[in-house]
Design brief:
The chain is of the alpha/beta class. Helices cover 36% and strands 24% of the residues. The strands form four sheets. An eleven-stranded mixed sheet has the order 4-3-6-7-8-9-10-14-13-12-11, with helices on both faces. A hairpin with a 7-residue loop joins β1 and β2.
Length: 446
C-alpha cells in the first residue's frame, strides 16, 4: 500500500479510537473485547447470558412501562406466553411502551418507512446504540472490515442534504475513510467515479444494498472494468440477497459476499460467516420462530431486543419468515444458525435518462409522516407512477405536496403521480408486503 494511503488509514484508526472513546467511554477497547469474547463463547455460555439479560429486561419492562405492566401481570413471565408485539401496537401505544425511567431528553427518536409499507416511529437509548455498534464491529470483521481501512459504501446517501448536514456527512466520510456511492441514484458517471476511486483507494470491503450492489457490478461487468486489487469481502445488508446478485458480485470482485440481516427497530439480528451460515446475534437479540417446529417449519420471526431499555421491544413481529438449524457450523462459532430467511424485496425504479433509483428512496419519503398509515409506490411507465395510500386524520394537502414532490424530484418533474386512496394495501400472492413496485424492473428469478 502506498505511503499516503497508509497514513490516511492510520489517521482514520486514530479518529475511530477517539470517536469510540467519546461515545462508549475510555474503556471501549475492553468492552469490545468482552463483546467479542461472548460472541465467540461456547453455546452454554451464550444461553446463560441470554437468559440473564432476558430476565432483567422483562423485570425492567414490567416495572417501568405502562404497556408491559398491564400486559405481563408479573415481572418474571414465561416469554413464550407473552403476546407478540405488533407494528400496530408500536403505533398505537407509543408513549405507553416507553420506559418511565427515561426522560424525553434521554430518548433517541428513530423511524422507518417499514417493509410493511407503514411508517413507524419508535425510541431507543444511547446504550442501545453503543451496544449495537460493538456487535456490528464484531460481525463486520467476519467480512474483513477493520477500523480505519478504506471502504466503499453503496447506500442511501443523503444527496439532498444542505448546509451543516451536508458538511457533517462529508466530514464523517473523511475520518471514517469511506467513499459513499449513492445507492438511491445510480448513474453511469457516478459508478465510473466510484470505480476510479477504488483503483486509487484500494478499499478492503464494500457495504451495500444488495440491489444497488447488483447494479454496480452489472455496470462493471458490461464495461469490462476489472479491479487490480483484492477485496477482503462484501457486506450486503437491508434487503434480500438474491442468488444472482451474490453470484455476479463474487465473480466480478473474486471475493465472498456476506449477508447481514437486521432491522432499524432492533439492530443487527444475524450475519453470515465464511462457511455460509447465518449466525444469530445472541448478545443483542433473543430470536424466536413462531412455528410448531422452528427447525423444520418456517415461521414468522419474533425478536426481543435485549439492550433498548428506553422502549423495550419484546417478541416483536418484524415481518420476515425464517427457520432455525441445529447443526454445528464448520466455522467453529457456536452462535445459533438462522437456516432460512425469507424477507421482502425492494424494487429499483428507472428514469428516462437511465438513472436507477433504489426503492429505499421512496420509503424514506414516508419517514415521520403522520398522515399515512400504509403506502405503495408503483412505477407504471417512465412517465406515470401510482401512489396508493391508506390515510388517517392527520393527512393534509401539505403531505400530498411533500410526497408528490419527493417522487418527482428523482423521476422527473413532468412524471404524472396518480394518488389512489384505498382502505387497505393487500399482501402479494407470496404473502409479502410490497411497498415499491416497478413494472419496468427485471423480474427476480433465483
Amino acid at each position: 500500500m502506498p505511503i499516503h494511503r497508509s497514513v490516511k488509514t492510520l489517521l482514520s484508526k486514530v479518529a475511530w479510537h477517539a470517536y469510540n472513546s467519546y461515545r462508549k467511554g475510555a474503556r471501549y477497547r475492553s468492552r469490545f473485547s468482552q463483546a467479542a469474547a461472548l460472541l465467540d463463547a461456547p453455546r452454554e455460555t451464550i444461553v446463560a447470558f441470554q437468559k440473564e439479560r432476558l430476565e432483567t429486561l422483562l423485570q425492567h419492562a414490567y416495572e417501568t412501562t405502562p404497556y408491559y405492566r398491564e400486559l405481563l401481570k408479573t415481572e418474571s413471565p414465561d416469554i413464550s406466553e407473552i403476546p407478540p408485539l405488533e407494528k400496530q401496537d408500536v403505533r398505537n401505544q407509543l408513549e405507553r411502551l416507553c420506559s418511565e425511567a427515561f426522560s424525553q431528553e434521554q430518548r433517541i427518536k428513530n423511524a422507518t418507512g417499514g417493509s410493511t409499507g407503514t411508517p413507524l416511529t419508535f425510541y431507543q437509548d444511547r446504550n442501545y446504540w453503543n451496544q449495537r455498534n460493538l456487535s456490528v464491529y464484531y460481525f463486520d470483521r467476519w467480512a474483513g472490515w477493520n477500523f480505519g481501512e478504506p471502504q466503499l459504501i453503496i447506500w442511501g446517501a443523503p444527496a439532498d442534504l444542505k448546509g451543516d448536514e451536508h458538511w457533517k456527512h462529508r466530514l464523517n466520510n473523511l475520518w471514517r475513510n469511506q467513499y459513499w456511492l449513492d445507492g438511491f441514484r445510480l448513474t453511469d458517471e457516478k459508478m465510473q467515479a466510484a470505480f476510479e476511486w477504488m483503483e486509487q483507494g484500494y478499499p478492503q470491503t464494500i457495504l451495500a444494498y444488495p440491489s444497488s450492489l447488483y447494479q454496480f457490478v452489472t455496470f462493471l461487468s458490461e464495461k469490462g472494468l476489472t479491479s487490480r486489487w483484492q477485496l477482503k469481502g462484501i457486506i450486503a445488508s437491508a434487503e434480500m440477497l438474491h442468488l444472482h446478485y451474490r453470484a455476479l458480485a463474487e465473480d466480478v470482485f473474486n471475493t465472498k459476499v456476506y449477508n447481514r440481516y437486521g432491522g432499524r427497530e432492533v439492530g443487527l439480528i444475524a450475519m453470515e460467516c465464511a462457511e455460509g451460515r447465518m449466525h444469530i446475534n445472541c448478545r443483542d437479540i433473543y430470536l424466536e420462530i413462531n412455528s410448531p417446529n422452528p427447525y423444520t417449519e418456517p415461521g414468522e420471526i419474533l425478536v426481543t431486543q435485549l439492550n433498548n431499555y428506553a422502549m423495550p421491544f419484546i417478541r416483536y413481529r418484524i415481518g420476515d419468515i425464517g427457520c432455525l438449524s441445529n447443526e454445528v457450523c464448520p466455522c467453529g462459532n457456536q452462535l445459533p444458525i438462522l437456516a432460512e430467511l425469507l424477507g421482502r424485496t425492494t424494487a429499483t425504479f428507472r428514469t428516462r435518462t437511465g438513472t436507477l433509483i433504489h426503492g429505499g428512496y421512496f420509503t424514506q419519503q414516508f419517514y415521520r409522516i403522520d398522515g399515512v398509515s400504509q403506502f405503495q409506490v408503483i412505477q407504471e411507465t417512465l412517465k406515470h407512477c401510482v401512489l396508493k395510500l391508506v390515510i388517517n386524520e392527520k393527512w393534509t394537502d401539505a403531505t400530498r405536496r411533500h410526497l408528490v414532490q419527493g417522487i418527482q424530484r428523482v423521476l422527473g418533474g413532468d412524471v404524472i403521480i396518480t394518488i389512489e386512496f384505498v382502505e387497505e394495501i393487500p399482501l402479494s400472492t407470496s404473502g409479502k408486503r410490497e411497498y415499491t413496485i416497478s413494472k419496468l424492473a427485471t423480474p427476480v428469478n433465483d
